[in-house]
Design goal:
The structure is a homotetramer. Chain A is α/β, with parallel strands linked by helices. Chain A has helices at residues 30-36, 59-70, 86-95, 115-130, and strands at residues 2-9, 15-17, 22-24, 43-52, 76-80, 101-105, 136-141, 144-147, 151-154, 159-162. In chain A, the strands form three sheets. The first copy, chain A, has a six-stranded mixed β-sheet with strand order 4-1-5-6-7-8, with helices on both faces. In chain A, strands 2-3 form a two-stranded antiparallel sheet. In chain A, strands 9-10 form a two-stranded antiparallel sheet. Chains A, B, C, D: GO terms for molecular function: asparaginase activity.
């Protein structure tokens, strides 16, 4: 399987900087690399762009993500994104009607703090793309992969939940 | 989404027993529970049977797994299994032509030692079942989910690889 | 051995709050409990007070720490403290000339992110108190336990280093 | 502070070999290096010898340990040793009346599985050697550092306990 991963930052990637005493969104793929190391049957193209907390994303960032998807080598694309505005970016991408299988994912807790949740969300995207799915814009979080409009962040619970 | 998980043991579940100084296959779901805790959109039925290193499985164990699949509440079934004989059990189940979506998974390193690989394999199965897949017997390991006959354990590398 | 632990907060205790998307200093002893679980030969008295990032500590907090030391059941006392102002608090305590063996410790990275550094610093304090040491105010960080005036935080490196 | 570490193997160092499906005692210092990385104030001499489960140690292994202690650059020596026969080796070393401060340590659970217990035991040895202790043969396990004859492995509990 061939998959393009567009890593845009967000909680998924955050790491603690002991000098500053803060969590930072790094511009590298260290969080991702730990998962990918076990994907022996996937050929990845990885693009690292934006590298922001998604609350700080501006229109030009979303356009950059759109361009990265359009120019990706593969028709299977996973986008690692912050959870706070993933609904905005995914809705924008959906409207562009790109003929690819696009799956947004991310994490509520940084991979550097809890390897389970981040690995789960990303790996669900991979498993979904292993199936013969139609072109579309999806989101993979907390147990399921569905159309990006159907899974919504509940900010009180800190969980993405299917919108009934 | 509703999913039945049949946990049969294997490396995925192994834990260190400090009294005996050995890794053991426990008869509980502690390894699984850590992943499931983040699956807020899945209703699980969990069956814990056999609880063996798969090298120790005998015919009656495989029949028990077959019965557990047939009697599962859901048509989406994930089977956590040891990697050494998963090809035997999955082939047997495939021949039984059960009208369900059955995905075998497992791990090369215990969840208690490396949370990434085990979580990845299990979560790929979940992502695959989120898609509208046909009835069949599949295996989810190391980046992909495919028909159980197509992914084979390379014992020198310790990796499941697509059989060309 | 009998030891009083006064847990005042700091980086050592910080945990990620996925709802707020931030690290917080909790008012509990979860970070400490994980270490103490293996201390089968120590009888602990544990006091949880202040629970602050040490940059936010005020004079009354330091007086509260002083009172907690004076009223501790044991003459062996470990104080878990934030690294940014541990030099101020330890100097104050030293001036009070309390007839106890008082060891300050803490961590540059939260126990919830890196279990090694926090466990190391705390455990060095325990090992030091196992020896027949004189009353005094010490600090246990990054490999050694010395008089609290002799180990200084290098803010560029993020390391406590012996002051030559 | 200058410390010689003699790493002889044991549970402390064990790592999972996914090809063999077993825990092995490696002949490297990976477990140790993770702790030492935070010891910014210690100059280490590290010797890696024997590399065995301590149940497999023979007389010549113990003589090799004795020679390594005698020829160590520093008078502060930590010996990482398996827990099953640490009482035999430490008793032998004690009888040799070497004029150094010798601290045996180890772990009930491999550092590769649980970083807390192994880090705690080793770091207590470091903290103890930071104090002005007399020459002797000590053991650092589970909360305390005492003369090697006074802390005994309880094989039912999997704990080293002070012998009353």
């Amino acid at each position: 399987m061939k998959v393009t991963v567009i890593n845009t930052g967000g909680t998924f990637n955050k790491r603690y900087n002991p000098i500053k005493g803060q969590l930072e969104v790094p511009a590298d793929n260290i969080a991702l690399d730990k998962i990918i190391a076990s994907c022996h049957n996937v050929e990845f193209e990885i693009k690292n762009i934006v590298s922001k907390d998604s609350l700080d994303m501006i229109d030009s960032d979303r356009e950059a993500i759109c361009e990265a998807i359009k120019s990706s080598e593969n028709d299977k694309v996973i986008i690692v994104h912050g959870t706070d505005t993933v609904h905005l970016t995914s809705e924008l991408i959906k409207q562009r009607r790109i003929n690819k299988k696009i799956v947004f994912t991310g994490a509520m807790v940084p991979m550097s703090i809890d390897e389970v949740e981040a690995t789960m969300n990303f790996s669900q995207a991979l498993g979904f793309l292993s199936a013969d799915v139609e072109d579309g814009t999806y989101i993979a979080m907390h147990g399921v992969v569905v159309d990006c409009s159907k899974l919504v962040k509940n900010r009180e619970l800190g969980q993405f939940l299917i919108q009934e």
